[in-house]
Amino acid sequence: MADQVRTARGGALAGYAALVTGGGTGIGKACAARLAADGAVVTICGRTEKRLVAAAEEIGKSAADGGSVRYVVADVTSEEDVRAAVAAAAEPTGGLDACVANAGGDAEYTQPLHLQDVGIYSSVLELNVVGTLLSIKHTLPLLVASGHGSFVGMSSIAGHQTHPYFGAYTAGKAGVEALIRNAADEYGPTQTRFNAVRPGFITTEIMEQVPRDSPVYASYLDQTPMRDVGAPEDVANLVRFLIGPESRWITGQAINVDGGNGLRGGPDFSSWIKGNPDQDTILARKPLES
Asked: Domains of the chain (ranges plus CATH)?
């Protein structure tokens, strides 16, 4: 594990211990950095140790106000891995105050529904929904024991507005939001809070696949009132608020960080699937007459 980085001062989250899954890159790394910068003892986990080492080194250089970072290799679809990651996150302070269930995503597989590979579809659901469930299951006793536990699930604007050709990703993120709402209701009496965040187009490694001169990128801008794309830090700032005591009366919510994209519609990825004979045949058929 990476060495902890501490300073003499205490930030607003001093004494907090937090677990950030999928913390080696993108939004997860930004969330971990934001929490550590405000005094939290943060544990990041992910499947690729090389990325975790690099992320922990980067975050450690900027951690302040008593904050620190450490890492553990874990796959959120493995219950044993999640159990071990939670135990590791609780080691520094003897407890856990927060969890950011950021690990998730798709299979980089853009296809219409009738062409979906069931194996790939199932794996995406497992990563997003089951991974979030396992994170809830194993952090919950510690979050409850803290007396002010906060769990943040990572959804997407695709979890509540249509994103044609995104396959299981849309269903997976909608599943994350359903888990968050039910957990907030079930565990509200314990003063443990559950919220979700819905990022729009954020400049992460995954979204770099969309060329800036493409019609897909143009469709994102057309559907975004602020006419721009977000940064991982924009999401991290909201996550920090939801983790901290300032949001003590907020639970069961899914909050957009999207420059207003949710006011309009999802992106147009049709240019990515044109030329597929099966798809073109389906779309060419006329609707049945009543």
From this structure: 17-283 (3.40.50.720)
